[in-house]
Amino acid sequence: MTEPSREAPLTAAHNIEPFFVLHKAAAGASLTTSRARRRVDKIPQPSSPSPKSPKRPRDEDGDDEGDMELYEQLRLEAFHRTWSKIQSTINEVLRGINLKLFDQVLRWVQESFSTVRSVIRPCPAEIQQPYPLLTDVICRKIPTAFVLTKNAEFVDDVTTFRDLSDHLESNGCHLAKLSSTELSAKYGVAGCLKSLLRQLLSDVPDVADVSALASWYCRAKNYDQPIIIVIDDLEQCSGDVLGELVMTLTEWVIKIPIFFVMGIATTLDAPRKLLSSEALQQLDPCQLTMGSPSDRMNALVEAILVKPCAGFCISHEVAVFLKNYFFRHDGTITSFISALKLACSKHFSVEPLSFLCMGTLEEDCENFWRDKFDAMPEAMQKQAFGLPSCTRENNSIKPGNNLVEGLSALMKLQRDWSSVLSCLYEAGRHGKVQLLDIFCEAINPDLRTKKDSNIELLMSKVTSGNLPSGNSGAGRRFLAQALDTVRYMPMETLFRVLKVWSIHSEGMNEINDKVKELQSTTTSADCMRITKDKWTRSTNSTANGAVPLNEKATMLLDDITRKFLVPVECLPFHEIICFKNVGVLQSALIGNPRRMVQLDLLKSQSRLKCSCCSRNGIAVSASLHDTSIMCNLAQEYGDVINLQDWYLSFDGIINNTNSKGKRKLIGSPSKKKSKAAPQESEAMIQARFCRAVTELQITGLLRMPSKRRPDLVQRVAFGP
Amino acid sequence: MAPRGGHAAAAASSGSEDEEVEEAGFSRSYFLAKEKEPSSAKKRARAAAAGKLADLNLVDEQVLRESLAEIPPKHEKEIDALTRSYKDQYRNWLFELRCGFGLLMYGFGSKKLLLEDFASTTLTDFTVVVVNGYLPSINLKQVIAAIAEIFWEQTKLKQKKQSGKKSQLSQNFASQSIDDIISFLNNQTPEDGHDGVCLLIHNIDGPALRDAESQQCLAQVSCCPRICIVASVDHVNAPLLWDKKMVHTQFKWSWYHVPTFAPYNVECVFYPLILASGGHAQTTKTALVVLQSLTPNAQSVFRVLAEYQLANEKEEGMPVSSLYTKCRERFLVSSQVTLNSHLTEFKDHDLVKIKKHSDGQDCLRIPLVPDALQKLLQELA
After folding, report:
1. Where's the Origin recognition complex subunit 2 winged-helix domain (chain B) (predicted)?
2. Does residue A474 sit at the B interface (CB-CB below 8 Å)?
């Protein structure tokens, strides 16, 4: 791309065309990929009956490239499978949480429909007649469900309303969605009707008219269901257009049962502020409320991070970043999920062995790993054992010589970790611990290494009733809080918690037994207690300590925490499944052009890694990129820059150093060149100045002079 | 792209721990800059008067443009190395594209060559449609119709292969609405062998694409099943173009900081040169273009006004009543209404400014210096 000769013919024609086709996807062009695909296919699938795969015979030349493509293809496949698993889990979780609301809406729809139909059941001829039916005035109201979303940001509700629409549609309702762009003054009510017809009718007439809808509704297959119009963000709509739509439809509500479902992000006042009283009177409101965002967040974290549903997991640093990103930056689940997806794609893109992740999705994962490992080129096999987690000295768990065993052990330990964390959260949530918080602590590898020394100290603090807030315990705040909650938990709650523990610990026999044992003692003790003195129990347990059931549960929890809560980063081979590079994620997620472009210009020498510009110790060297010189000079000014002044400084820097260079470099070979070149001509300097100003203008760091003040330009950005 | 949005952008675009520190630094430099700013109007005037562009020995625009083409490149070696380092990332970029993300390149320097090189060397499985967003006008509908056309051709080809005969169906996308075309694009299903279309947009923050409607349209296109998007931005406030829905569910940007330090040769073309546009030449030229498009009578009215202004340089302007009398004498206008319609035309094109005279009546003045006015009259004749 640096050869101008090749670019020249292309640029001339294509630079001024608004758009052009650079090249078509040629069938021949994808030869390499298809070859790679074939080779991927050659690798025996784990489910295939031939478990032993001999090492592939490989050609000598072009082999590395082929391998690279092959494994890239595998990693891509792994990403798609992993992410689709995560995505479907997310969808399931969100739908599960919203199901209650969806059912409420459905019930309301059915009730409203039967109310409307109980008034009158018009025949097709009646529906299509141009004048209204004579009925009670009250029944001309349109049933409307206002769904309070409790989200400040609308973006999270997009999926909720999509799911709601699916839910209603699958239950037989006719469904149409109107977005705020359609309900805008620009489209008008005609645009809305057109959009409605597009969504419901197969062939849309040129003139959007409700009568077209009426004749469609008269058909036998459409007749017995209501039409639901979903408007997901009411606040963004134009009140006039919506009002007009309401007034239009209200004429028809008996003939065509159309109901509204409207999402409200703020308060119930919104419709009143938005609609005219006349339109408002035509609505028959019903109020429904969605679950809170933090509930949804907890459920999501549990489903995709605590119980890694697809094998992929994230490191402590990444988790903390995501947590901050969620709480401080954005607060929407959508952005959290997209950040996670980006992390996932980065992992599969960068980590060569990440395709092994796919194994966890297979029924027989060991077989899968074995096949893949055998087929690997030697360099890659070596790479696996050269992973930092396998080579570090102070590993508590030593990696074996076998990758398959290593990975299986990793999965087993991950499962244990997840069970223990679930138990901890089950206890902690009674003390208002958020899952994301405790999750971040549980995957912190530093705590694991420090823990053994700190734990005694910590425990003593907890027992004395203080929440550890000192420096040693600060990192384990939420874990300690969870333990603490168990310690002071009322017996009934403890019983429920133990019940959940026994479910979580199902895969771990040793713990499960202990939980069961505790459960049995609790049951008997509990019965006795409740009959005896329900109200003095809490003082009793701390005072005499004769029945330290809470204490026992706490000990158990603490014990399993120590034993099994091993963060993934402490385990060998974790790099294969765990994404760690928080820097890469951050830069891809949050592009910061405002800062970075200014830094590009102010520190161009470090970006270009050149040796010429920062020599001599001059603040602004003439060898810098022209725009960079100008940007540096601009820092000297206030928010307006005098062009003449700026030009003179620029001129000064370029010519000054030129003459200085002349004096200094006598005798050096490069000297001849600079001697031959005369001082930059005025025209050239002006041209360079012009170009630099234009470039600053393109980057938006500068605004052009106004007509009133033609000699001043305005600085827009101040400091990176 | 209002500058005041910049604060929000700076605050919003860093989610890291050192956000507060950064924030403080930002506000400090802002206030430092404010301090340097001349506060009172008087000081401001002094700053403005400190130096004028006219004081410089400005070369002719023609010469300036010639020199512009000959600016010697700096740091060629380093820029080469930088570009090579990006080449190594091409495969990762492709990977991410296939994962369903859109690539958004930013950083100082033209990214046109870089992206087109990436497209022609790495995106060989895609049909690549390039949009030059830096141009002042782009018809997005044509772009989308072109993409739809590509898919339509593929479908036809496939049908031909299957049935052995040429399909008689035809689609005229140009006559369909944008919504219709987008719903056609949305109905495409991923097929084997075809990776679909990659939309490569240079300067998605360019002047013609900066409005909300274009961005909405691009966002809708970018989440169609067989379309992926690679774009570049140059403006520092570019993130303000998109809301969360667009960023997270439609474009799905993955940002890449790729400063190239390459000159904005093509992108620059549509910006006026700062040392050329300020002079008289430009204003005279534009005034001439406007005047030549008017009727001969209107031109003559302007001439009357100009001649009066040249003859009476010290005066604030020509009273409307005297202009009317003069024009009537020369049979240029028959009534005040006709004169007013000419004047409205002049005002709309900034050929004439109206001022209240000290004695209360409206005065007309052409906002050009005598020399420029003289030249204009010569050229008009």
Report:
1. 312-371
2. no
